[in-house]
UniProtKB/TrEMBL annotation:
Residue positions where N6-(pyridoxal phosphate)lysine is found in the record: K656
Annotated EC: 2.4.1.1
Family matches, as InterPro entries: Glycg_phsphrylas, Glyco_trans_35, Pyridoxal_P_attach_site
Cellular-component GO terms for this entry: cytoplasm
Protein name in UniProt: Alpha-1,4 glucan phosphorylase
Cofactor entry: pyridoxal 5'-phosphate
BP terms from Gene Ontology: glycogen catabolic process
Described function: Allosteric enzyme that catalyzes the rate-limiting step in glycogen catabolism, the phosphorolytic cleavage of glycogen to produce glucose-1-phosphate, and plays a central role in maintaining cellular and organismal glucose homeostasis. Phosphorylase is an important allosteric enzyme in carbohydrate metabolism. Enzymes from different sources differ in their regulatory mechanisms and in their natural substrates. However, all known phosphorylases share catalytic and structural properties.
Length: 813
């Protein structure tokens, strides 16, 4: 592989600091040193990048376009160095220059261009595509502000803007030459073609220019550099001078305002109609820009559109990009004069849809009024797709109005985007075996009946390059020393570690590395939170988006239960434990934000109660993000994966913890089911109802008061929410109390927190007992790492490429 000599690298960094900032190394800030280092290695990256795309173009390779509203890439620099196999050299170069490399890496902003799992999965998939030499683009939006930066003030979440572009963007390359126009609003006029057919023309519209910024996605140990293409909106004309000169200043700046707000913020809270409108605009904006660009690229080499499915695959990452079905139809029919039937056949063969949710409320629906006003031509196309689909249903099921209303793309005044994606795609996949089965049997059963051949499962995965090689270098080094380095590109190799669970020397080193990681996290918590935690305690970690179904509330109620036990019985035999949380709640999600306040209120009481002698501690880490996850996950002893069974589609945090030797406490939900299969029931702590039991309980009804009356621990924990124990304002947490017992604006205890509490507490005592046997615990931890091979995103992407996209790899030499 092409490399830079260390001497040359030093020279480049020095020169870049001088050229970019008019400074010397000695007085440059960490941020300036970081940017100088990026520009030093970008030469190597750009050469590979250009070569990759030249090769794709010359070979006329098939390309997959992974369409996603979110890409949570994490910091670029460290990952780029790992995949270029230059990490050690760059670290040495900085050491020789008298600079702490970690300080430089920490100076890079962590772009929050995603809400959580969906965006992080997309990032893992892009990295795997490059590592497997598969031609691919990730396509999304270059939000100026990512998901908010979370601050905790007086225990409450406060959102502040995430201005990741504040100090420039050394990774993105602006591609003005690929700019396209995206149109909103106006009206549609039919123009006769002279042969009895019509062409449809959008008029009186507002438009913006979509400008792509390209970011390199570097494959590990090869020469492939694929592209993450993020679109930014710019006004078509800076200022309508005519309107301005006539004194109509607002109209003059209208286009500029539209463009500026369009890609300003990662899609906003959409409780109000303006929020909904902006989100719909964002979706159409990046989809239209991508589809137009893809077709323009295709036409450079091809005149026959029937070849499009052999050259292009669109993967719709959830319902947000499902507009691609209608936009591709628009471009084929309106702009390239294809007959409808031919265009429809092509569209279905190009598009494939990934469903990421079981919760029907998360399957996007748009009001017809909003959709038709904002996207008049797209609405017409969706109407026609729906008309033809309803005919297909009538043909199959006869005149069955109830069935048709349940399955129609347009019904009850709404456009159902998931249904558009299913009807307009050749493949519909879930993201874990259980999830796919639930889709087939419940949520999408009618569609499974109609199109059984479309449905398939692709269990999610994570990239071991970021989540082990970069996040946990000492463990990675031990593994490489023990079984060789092939695991970096073939995670199944980790199975070779299984016999080492019986090797005392290996166990000892494995334990020492975990301890070092725990000490490092304890120091970070002391520096950032001022809380002293015991590195010998069990580090019990739950990090993910805060949502009621993920049941952070169950976790903190159990902490309250333990605290109450310690207060009543100071001699309670308990292994010291540190409960660590990290989570952002959606800005408009009141109850989730109240749970954050509760966790912090419990932390304040528990951490400052001298009578329990620090035997339990509670820490809420603010602003959970990829770079923080890389500190927390390697230090975890216990991984909390406790969603209500049947609610979590897959989860990927569960895989990251497992890979790093944490033991899972979890329900049989999402990918936990497959983790349990891989590692064996003896090496995981399973509790709670199954998905089938949850469904049955939901249908039959359930009375949480029964649990309250029968279980003293639950009763005391709930009472402490409203008796002033955690806040003198006894009404503050009353809503949580009511939601669990009486149903506050919904079913009582909708996510079965109280129903699963006793079994959860039992599993936690099982953990306490297992941890006391150090040799047993480390064996279990090693087996978790050893059996995590299935959960590499390389395996997932290989399955997508072979079974959905028919995408051959292209080796770049």
């Amino acid at each position: 592989m092409e490399r830079i000599e260390k001497k040359e690298l030093k020279k480049l960094i020095r020169e870049n600091v001088k050229t970019l900032y008019r400074k010397t190394l000695e007085n440059a800030s960490p941020e300036e040193l970081y940017q100088a280092a990026v520009f030093a290695v970008r030469d190597v990256i750009t050469d590979k990048w250009m070569k990759t795309h030249d090769e794709y173009y010359e070979r006329d390779a098939k390309v997959v376009y992974y369409l996603s509203m979110e890409f949570l890439m994490g910091r670029f620099f460290g990952n780029a160095l790992i995949n270029l196999e230059m990490f050690d050299e760059v670290k040495e170069v900085f050491a020789e220059l008298g600079i702490d490399y970690n300080m430089v890496e920490e100076a890079e902003p962590d772009p929050g261009l995603g809400n959580g799992g969906l965006g992080r999965l997309a990032a893992c998939f892009l990295e795997s595509l490059s590592t497997l030499s598969l031609p691919a683009y990730g396509c999304g939006i270059r939000y100026h502000y990512g998901i908010f930066e979370q601050r905790i003030e007086n225990g409450y979440q406060v959102e502040v803007p995430d201005n990741w572009l504040e100090n420039g963007d050394p990774w993105g390359i602006k591609r003005n030459e690929y700019a396209v126009e995206v149109k909103f609003g106006g009206n549609v006029r039919a123009v006769g073609k002279g042969n009895g057919e019509y062409r449809f023309v959008q008029e009186n519209y507002q438009s913006v220019t979509a400008i792509p910024y390209d970011y390199p996605v570097i494959g590990y140990g090869n020469n492939t550099v694929n592209t993450l293409r993020l679109w930014e909106a710019k006004p078509k004309t800076r200022l309508d001078l005519k309107s301005f000169n006539e004194g109509n200043y607002q109209k003059a700046a209208e286009e500029e305002l539209l463009a500026n707000t369009l890609t300003d913020v990662l899609y906003p809270a959409d409780e109000h109609i303006q929020g909904k409108e902006l989100r719909l605009r964002q979706q159409y904006f990046f989809i239209s820009a991508t589809v137009q660009r893809v077709i323009a690229r295709f036409k450079k080499k091809h005149t026959d559109f029937n070849e499009l499915p052999d050259k292009v695959a669109f993967q719709l990452n959830d319902t947000h990009p499902s507009m691609a079905v209608a936009e591709l139809m628009r471009v084929l029919v309106d702009e390239n004069d294809l007959p409808w039937d031919q265009a429809w056949d092509i569209t279905r063969r190009v598009c494939a849809y990934t469903n990421h949710t079981i919760m029907s409320e998360a399957l996007e629906k748009w009001p017809m009024e909003l959709f038709s006003r904002l996207l008049p031509r797209i609405y017409q196309i969706v109407e026609e797709i729906n008309r033809r689909f309803v005919l297909e249903l009538t043909e199959k099921y006869g005149n069955n109005p109830d069935k048709i209303r349940k399955m129609a793309i347009i019904a009850d005044g709404q456009i159902r985007m998931a249904f558009l994606a299913i009807v307009g795609s050749h493949s519909v996949n879930g993201v874990a075996a259980l999830h796919t089965e639930i889709l087939k049997k419940q949520e999408l059963h009618n569609f499974y009946e109609l199109y059984p051949e479309k449905f398939n499962n692709k269990t999610n995965g994570i990239t071991q390059r970021r989540w082990l090689l970069h996040a946990n270098p000492k463990l990675a080094e031990l593994i490489t020393e023990t079984i060789g380095k092939d695991w970096i590109t073939n995670l199944d190799e980790l199975k070779k570690l299984v016999p080492y669970a019986e090797d005392a020397a290996f166990r000892s080193r494995f334990t020492a590395i975990k301890k070092e990681n725990k000490i490092a996290l304890a120091q970070y918590i002391k520096e950032t939170k001022g809380i002293d935690i015991n590195p010998d305690s069990i580090f019990d970690i739950q990090v993910k988006r805060l949502h009621e179904y993920k049941r952070q509330l169950l976790n903190i109620l159990h902490v309250i239960g333990l605290y109450n036990q310690l207060k009543m019985n100071p001699g309670l035999d308990l292994v010291p434990r540190t409960f660590i949380f990290g989570a952002k709640a959606a800005a408009g999600y009141h109850r989730a934000k109240l749970i954050i306040k509760l966790i912090n209120a419990v932390a304040d009481v528990v951490n400052n109660d001298p009578t329990i002698h620090g035997r339990i501690k509670v820490v809420f880490m603010e602003n959970y993000r990829v770079s923080l996850a890389e500190k927390m996950i390697p230090a975890a002893d216990v991984s909390e994966q406790i969603s209500t069974a049947g609610k979590e589609a897959s989860g990927t945090g569960n895989m990251k913890f497992m890979l790093n030797g944490a033991l899972t406490i979890g329900t049989m939900d999402g990918a936990n089911v497959e983790i349990c299969e891989e590692v064996g029931r003896d090496n995981i702590f399973i509790f709670g109802m199954s998905a089938a039991e949850v469904q049955q309980k939901t249908q039959e009804g359930y009375d949480p008061w029964m649990v309250y009356n029968m279980n003293q621990e639950v009763r005391m924990a709930l009472t402490s929410l409203i008796d002033g124990t955690f806040d003198p304002d006894t009404n503050l947490f009353r809503e949580l109390y009511d939601a669990l017992l009486n149903g506050c604006g919904g079913r009582a205890d909708e996510y079965f927190v109280l129903e699963d509490y006793a079994d959860y507490a039992r599993a936690q005592w099982d953990i306490d007992r297992a941890y006391r046997d150090e040799e047993k615990w480390v064996r279990m931890a090693i087996l978790n790492t050893a059996e995590s091979g299935k959960f590499s995103s390389d395996r997932t992407i290989r399955q997508y490429a072979d079974e959905i996209w028919q995408l051959p790899s292209v080796e770049i030499v």
